[in-house]
Specification:
single chain, mainly alpha, Leucine-rich Repeat Variant, 8 helices, 66% helix, 0% strand
Length: 129
């Protein structure tokens, strides 16, 4: 049974770089179902050269909810790709740890309106408003 779980993990990790957007989204959902066993593999993908892989890895990590990876996510708040910054902000909001609010404040002035709005929403959520 463990072999199948590892095969499923490997298969879904590889699908994060699929050209098909639906395949990538399905892989995220499967990785969220796998949960904490997928975290270490997902963290490695945060430095992938493909922004879509970084984006989907962040999405899965935020939804899994493992707060131990907060420093890894904070590193991507300054990513060159606005989509990645957006998902880093959103993922930190999902982790529901109020201490990350300070890291989100600079993103309220991000060049991208979606990143700005996500930062504002996450900060309000973390403040309990």
């Amino acid at each position: 049974m463990v072999i199948n779980a590892n095969a499923d993990l490997n298969e879904n990790i590889s699908k994060l770089s699929d050209k098909d957007k639906k395949e990538r989204a399905d892989a995220v959902n499967a990785l969220v179902q796998i949960g904490k066993p997928a975290v270490s593999r997902l963290v490695l993908l945060l430095s992938d050269t493909d922004w879509k892989v970084r984006y989907r890895a962040l999405e899965a990590l935020g939804r899994i909810g493992d707060t131990s990876i907060i420093p890894d996510i904070i590193m991507l708040l300054t990513d060159e790709k606005d989509h990645v910054r957006y998902m880093a902000v959103k993922s930190l909001g999902l982790l529901n740890v109020s201490e990350v609010s300070a890291a989100l404040i600079p993103l309220v002035n991000d060049e991208n309106p979606y990143v700005r709005r996500a930062a504002e929403e996450s900060i309000k959520k973390l403040a309990g408003k």
